[in-house]
From TrEMBL:
GO terms for cellular component: early endosome; plasma membrane. Homodimer. It is found in: Cell membrane; Early endosome. SUPFAM superfamilies: Multidrug resistance efflux transporter EmrE. Keywords: Cell membrane, Endosome, Ion transport, Magnesium, Membrane, Transmembrane, Transmembrane helix, Transport. Belongs to the NIPA (TC 2.A.7) family. Acts as a Mg(2+) transporter. Can also transport other divalent cations such as Fe(2+), Sr(2+), Ba(2+), Mn(2+) and Co(2+) but to a much less extent than Mg(2+). It comes from the Eukaryota. One of its GO terms (molecular function) is magnesium ion transmembrane transporter activity. It is a multi-pass membrane protein. This is Probable magnesium transporter. Pfam families: Mg_trans_NIPA (PF05653). PANTHER family: MAGNESIUM TRANSPORTER-RELATED (PTHR12570:SF74), PTHR12570.
Length: 175
């Protein structure tokens, strides 16, 4: 069991590296294609002829496949949080390879990704197998789950109906 989790962990880490770097490779390909023809943002399709963009796409596919395989060897509670590491890989590579400035808030976001992933992995509950729909229903009507669901719905409605119309155009935190 230990070696299976370790293999899943390694695959998830490799997946994050591939997926995070694929964004940078694709962006370099888009920039290169934008020099010779209309940009993709203005309806151009020149990037489809750019080998660097295709290398980025292949890199992403390899990363997604390794992420999928990681779920075979390790529980989702271990693999899923490690997906956030692709954000860190992408941010760091963008800083060094694309010469994009990594602001203090970006560094803070990367640190929060690391802390969040670590906390989730360390405090993950034991997996239990569910054998029937009745067991799922019993879990769904637990007070903690109902409170969580009601809270998420209430917060989402407040954000959508109140904050988004008032602040959505001027504040990136409110979409």
């Amino acid at each position: 069991m230990y070696s299976s989790n370790l293999l899943g962990f390694i695959l998830a880490m490799v997946s994050s590296a591939f997926i995070g770097s694929s964004f940078i490779i694709k962006k370099k390909g888009l920039r290169k294609a934008g020099v010779s023809g209309p940009r993709a943002s203005s309806g151009g399709y020149g990037y489809l002829l750019e080998p660097l963009w295709w290398i980025g796409m292949i890199t992403m596919v390899v990363g997604e496949i390794s992420n999928f395989v990681a779920y075979i060897y390790a529980p989702a509670v271990l693999v899923t949080p490690l997906g956030a590491l692709s954000i860190i890989v992408s941010a760091v590579l963008a800083h060094f390879l694309l010469k994009e400035k990594l602001q203090k808030m970006g560094v803070l976001g990367c640190l929060l990704c690391i802390v969040g992933s670590t906390v989730i992995v360390l405090h993950a509950p034991e997996e239990r197998s569910i054998n029937s729909v009745e067991e799922i229903w019993e879990l769904a009507i637990q007070p903690a789950f109902l409170l969580y669901t009601a809270s998420v719905v209430a917060i989402a409605l407040v954000l959508i109906l109140y904050f988004s119309p008032r602040y959505g155009q001027t504040n990136i935190l409110v979409l």
